[in-house]
TrEMBL record:
Name of protein: Thioredoxin domain-containing protein
Domain DSBA-like thioredoxin: residue ranges: 7-208
GO molecular function: oxidoreductase activity
InterPro entries given in the database record: DSBA-like_thioredoxin_dom (IPR001853), Thioredoxin-like_sf (IPR036249)
Domain of life: Bacteria
Length: 217
């Protein structure tokens, strides 16, 4: 019998480990097949909530935030590119890439969840930012991405030009921080088991099988 699995995937669209973790998770779910009946909900987390609209150069930002040198930043990007390739995702960021504010992307994701297209939009946002070097804070870009996954472009523009879903997103962000989430991705299963980071497929398979065993008592 299939075990129901509620998955809260707390993440940011500008977090490379989040797409690596998401690909690892979905591959694990594919491997588990009928053992689980999973439902993924994307929850908002902003790595850089104070980032201005024009964004910031990625190397400059990483140096300021973590004290990394340009060489360390480049080596880290190379490692992320390799991990991405392993899960079928192309990272094309380089030393000239920029970090942007992602709050409006999270508002759009909240709306997409109500429309049943949240997963599609999340994947498209990751690709737009990391593969196509697009700006996930630009309203025109966001509306085009929404349209590309089957969401209504005019409605997307309406959401973006207002403060719609801002309160809901902030409330969710505060909720997950209050539950102890301080880094992403954090993947919470059935409101009680958490896995952090861009884990490989096997780690997710093992964790989910453990949850299934405990659920069956």
């Amino acid at each position: 019998m299939s075990t129901p699995l509620k998955i809260d995937f707390v993440s940011d669209v500008s977090c490379p480990w989040c797409i690596i973790g998401l690909r690892g998770l979905t591959e694990a779910l594919d491997q588990l097949g009928p053992e689980v009946q999973a439902e993924i909900h994307f929850q908002p987390f902003e790595l850089n909530p104070d980032m201005p609209a024009e964004g910031q150069n990625i190397t400059e930002h990483i140096t300021e935030k973590y004290g990394s040198t340009a060489e360390q930043s480049q080596a880290n990007r190379a490692m992320i590119r390799d991990r991405g390739a392993e899960v079928g995702f192309a990272f094309r960021t380089d030393g000239q890439s920029r970090i942007y504010n992602t709050f409006d992307a999270h508002r759009l994701l909240h709306w997409a969840g109500l429309e049943g297209l949240q997963y599609n939009l999340k994947e498209a946002l990751f690709k737009a930012y990391f593969t196509d070097q697009q700006n996930p804070s630009d309203h025109g870009t966001l509306a085009t991405i929404a349209d590309s996954v089957g969401l209504d472009r005019l409605r997307a523009e309406e959401v973006l030009s207002s403060n719609e879903y801002a309160a809901e997103v902030r409330e969710q962000e505060q909720l997950w921080v209050s539950r102890g989430v301080s880094s992403v991705p954090t993947i919470v299963f059935n409101d009680q088991y958490a896995v952090s980071g861009g884990q490989p497929v096997e780690a997710f398979v093992d964790a989910i099988r453990q949850i299934i065993r405990e659920a069956k008592g």
